[in-house]
Amino acid sequence: MGPQDISIPALIFTFLLLGIPLYIMFHFKLGLIRNALISVGRMAMQLFLMGIYLKYLLQWNISWLNALWVGVMVIVASFTVIRNAELNRRLFFWPVMGSLIFSVISILLYFNRVILGLENILDARYFIVIGGMFLGNSLRGNIIGVSSFFRDLQRNQERYLYRLAMGATVLEGVTPYVRNALTAALKPSLAAIATMGIVFLPGMMTGQILGGATPLTAIKYQIAIMVAIFVILSIAVTLTILLTLRVSFDEYGVMRTNLFRQKRVYKNKSRKFRVF
Amino acid sequence: MILFDRVSLTFENKIILTEFSLQVRPGDRVLVSGKSGIGKSTLLRMLLGFVQPQQGAVHYKGQVMSPEVAVRVRGEAAYVSQSLDIGQGKVGTFLDEIFSYKVHHGRQTPRRIRDSIRRFLELSDGIEEEKLDSLSGGEKQRVALWTALMTQRKLLLLDEVTSQLDHDMKKKVADYLLSLKDCTMICISHDACWKQDRSIRRVTLGG
Predict the structure, then answer these.
(1) In chain A, which among 168-227 make CB contacts under 8 A with chain B?
(2) Contact A178, A241 (CB under 8 A)
(3) What pTM did the predictor assign?
């Protein structure tokens, strides 16, 4: 039993609903109309294209192609983290990508093999779809964690140098910043976990129920997914920070001056995040 | 013990030091003075490896400055920075963190010494429960000095260590630090309390 399909005319009716927020924006002169139209247009286009890719990827279900696809998603996610954290792409690309690959792929394989007990752990239906879910949902926490670490360090550089002068190693010196960054990254995720099922019905669960799964299966998936996302987030932020320590400080332990990107290009950060 | 050998430094097109030389032998007390922004703090930062000279070299115990030598200096010096932005949270937590570093392992300062320095600096009994951010400039400076003295290190690098203290405390601290035996000291200060001591060698930058 599949969900009730949405026909093309029905989709047009969906877009008609947008008239309400557009009118509000116009009335209160929010200056967001153009932005809203572009954002919705982009979303429709991106999802439409994703629908086509997924159709074929699921149909072909070739293991190496599935792995390659997840690899591409990780690369795009790495760029998104670096761009939103406004960091120097050249310095940070490899450490960010390395930590995302390690955290997402290892947990994804564990999820498919140990939790779901799949025969083919690279099965497109699980590997790509759940991989995308993991990446998308750990992205925001990653951005918050990584950017908070470097901003905090830059803002409080005197404190860091003082610790070095008192004999701290680089790792000992940055520990308070790692602590703050992990707290900033994990707290919203913990809040989302704690309110799950009360404040909102999670997307994964809703999707599964609409797709015909029993509510019991749907909640079990949701629980497993939430735990996995939380684990990925913890590993990814910690690993990114640890891997970037080598490139972020000179051999004397002093923070390099070229860690941040020079220009702020993106105005609308929120549209870079995917929420479920 | 410490040698600044014709060091020159330019920062953002501003000349900070030009061919500056200074030798500090074990047990020396050196008072560095000079106008603000002339590069006094930079000398200590160079010795700690935070800034590298464009010309000349800094030597410590016969070795030219390198990342390894910088680590050695940081492990052997008691530093009080000019900036009073030294940490956050409770004073006690701040001290626990500083003394949890590997370099301090097995060299914990006995409680008795810790308390006697605190009392000497006229810091209250409950200071460890107070937050660093809520302390006055003078209190922060005394906490920084307390931390430095607790390390019981023999090389004192003091950057404006008495600037925020009241008149009596300035004299008390300066007299105490100058009375410490076997200590080598580089002190940056504008305060008159340091100049009264005849054993201190005075170096004026830009003068």
Answers:
(1) 168-169, 172, 175-176
(2) yes
(3) 0.84
Task: Say yes or no: ipTM exceeds 0.90.
Answer: yes
Radius of gyration of chain A (CA): 21
Residue B77, chain A, CB below 8 Å: the answer is yes
Model confidence at B76, in pLDDT bands (50, 70, 90)? very high
Residue B63, H or E segment: strand B63-64
Listed in sequence order, the residues at least 6 apart from A60 whose beta carbon sits closer than 8 Å to its beta carbon are A124
Is A263's pLDDT higher than 60?
no
Instruction: State the best of A252, A254, A256 to mutate against chain B, taking most chain B CBs within 10 Å.
Output: A252
Q: Provide, rounded to the nearest whole percent, the portion of chain A with pLDDT above 70.
A: 94
Assess whether pLDDT exceeds 70 at residue A265.
no
B158-189 pLDDT, tens digit each = 999 999 999 899 989 998 998 888 899 999 99
Residue owning tokens 């792409």? A89
Is the CB of B101 less than 8 angstroms away from the CB of A251?
A: no
Q: What is the pLDDT of residue B99?
A: 92
> Looking at the predicted structure, is the pLDDT value of residue A275 above 70?
no
Contacts of B97-101 with CB under 8 Å at 24 or more apart are: B97/A175, B97/A176, B98/A163, B98/A166, B98/A168, B98/B147, B99/B150, B100/A172, B101/A163, B101/A166, B101/A167, B101/A168, B101/A169, B101/A172
Q: How confident is the model at residue A118 (pLDDT cuts 50, 70, 90)?
A: very high
Spatial contact of A236 and A99, defined as CB atoms under 8 Å apart? yes
Sheet of strand B77-80: strand arrangement:
B77-80, B155-159, B184-188, B29-33, B201-204
In terms of CA atoms, which chain B residue is nearest residue A250?
B67
What's the rounded mean pLDDT across residues B180-205?
87
Helix or strand run (H / E) with residue A225 = helix A215-248
CB atoms within 10 A of CB B202: 12
From the list A167, A176, A251, which residue is nearest B75 (CB)?
A167
**Pairwise CA distance, residues A238 & B196, whole Å:** 53
According to the model, what pLDDT value does residue B198 have? Answer: 79
| Contacts A169 to B, Cβ<8 Å | 101-102
Minimal Cα–Cα distance from B70 to chain A, Å?
Answer: 7
Cβ count within 10 A of residue A129:
15
* Chain B nearest CA to A104, separation (Å): 33
